[in-house]
Automatic annotation (TrEMBL):
Keyword Methyltransferase: yes
Highest classification ranks of the organism: Bacteria, Pseudomonadati, Planctomycetota, Planctomycetia, Planctomycetales
Alphabetical keyword list: DNA damage, Methyltransferase, Transferase
InterPro entries: ATL_DNA_repair, MethylDNA_cys_MeTrfase_DNA-bd, MethylDNA_cys_MeTrfase_DNAb, WH-like_DNA-bd_sf
Short name of any one Pfam family annotated for the protein: DNA_binding_1
Protein name in UniProt: Methylated-DNA-[protein]-cysteine S-methyltransferase
GO terms classed as biological process: DNA repair; methylation
Length: 108
């Protein structure tokens, strides 16, 4: 796994159940600003048994990003709803309510 991929997965692992982060937010927290697409690429390539909660990453509109297969979109929604995340009638997540706001780590 590349250094960038390791940084991305480390951030995604910190997102708690019932919260989401955007691709851009993950990229920024991983020290890779303006690399939201790279976050998507890393998450797409994860093995099924990685344990990384990929489902907690959504696009900047609070929607599940479209994929080649709608199976994953349905699975992502199912997993998020199982964690208590609510979707609107237009299939959006209210980022004001569900966006993860990590606490800043104290600098040594």
């Amino acid at each position: 796994m590349s250094t960038a991929a390791a940084k991305i997965t480390a951030v995604v692992r910190r997102i708690p159940p019932g919260k989401v982060a955007t691709y851009g937010q993950v990229a920024s927290l991983a020290g890779l600003p303006k690399n939201a697409r790279q976050v998507g690429t890393v998450l797409k390539s994860l093995p099924d048994d990685s344990g990384v909660p990929w489902q907690r990453v959504v696009n900047s509109l609070g929607r599940i990003s479209e994929r080649d297969s709608s199976t994953f979109e349905g699975l992502q929604r199912f997993l998020l709803e199982g964690e208590g995340v609510v979707f609107s009638e237009t299939d959006r997540i209210d980022l004001n309510e569900y966006r993860w706001q990590p606490k800043r780590r104290a600098k040594s």
